[in-house]
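Ticket opened by: R.M.
Priority: normal
Category: complex prediction / small molecule

The reporter submitted a protein together with glycine and asked that the result be attached to this ticket for the collaborator who will pick it up next week. Submitted input follows.
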Amino acid sequence: MVITVHTSSGQYDVIAEPGAAKTPERYLSLDRRVLIVTDRGVPKEYAARVAAACRAPVIVTVPVGEKSKSIRRWKVLHETMLKCGFTRNDCVVAVGGGVVGDLAGFAAATYMRGIDFYNIPTTLLSLVDSSVGGKTAVDLGGVKNPVGAFWPPKCVIADTELLSTLSPREYAAGMAESIKMAAALDADFFTALENGTPTPDEIVTRSILLKQRIVEADEREDGLRRVLNFGHTLGHGIESCGGRLHGECVALGMIPMCEGDVRERLVRTLSKYGLPTSCRISKKKVMRAVLHDKKTNENGTLTVVTVPKIGKYEFSDMTPDELRARLAVLS
Ligand code: GLY
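Result attached by the on-call engineer:
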């Protein structure tokens, strides 16, 4: 299936087809200089396959993990492109997960005031969420994503065959983002995840269609797109304690943001897909990171996403004390 995402500057296709990454030249314009950015955790053949389809490829492999989303790595990508004579007509291809996509996308957004960017996500998390919507960024001063740009890709190859090399833990972490969108936006999809056994292709396609709907309605996150932050306020705080994958933290971060039957269904569904539903954390440490990361409103509250009913969301203002108290449900 080809899903076309409309943006303020044009449109791009998400090629949601198993096996599509085997023939990238069918979808991407590669007859030029191409910077391929990947990381050491991605099977080498994925980037090599793209390189084989390019006239003038240059592969840069960064270390695995959030630390690679840095100004230092961004500078290396720019220096590489300059040294190799990249012009405004050349392009960048990300072959990796969310970190690689954010870093490579931001390098493309800023090199010579912006060159073409393509994304070939290799994790479930990046397939269903971060590769669609045009957000690119690097971290700075211990804060996630303060330096970035909206720079939509020219094309995304969403090939579920690339997921065959993911560990079960990485796969589960990606499921957290699909469950997040289903819980907040699509009760039917949530029920399918809760009671059925949808295939990876069904999960990816339904998630991308939801993401498309949101980013087309609110490309720059002026309002509606903030719904995608469901689970992320406390999730980022939990992530800062270390030892857990982003998706695992999002899973944990969603639980205190709903109550009663909704919470029970969410916890059951997260468990079904191998995600954690409780944890031992220092509430103080989590809240310190939350308050460092997120701007509070003038009255000292934080705006968070809550899910009062499966498929419905609300934006709610909560005091730091209220958020701290809600963390108790995780222990
Ligand atoms: N990953 C959340 C967003 O794209 O807005």
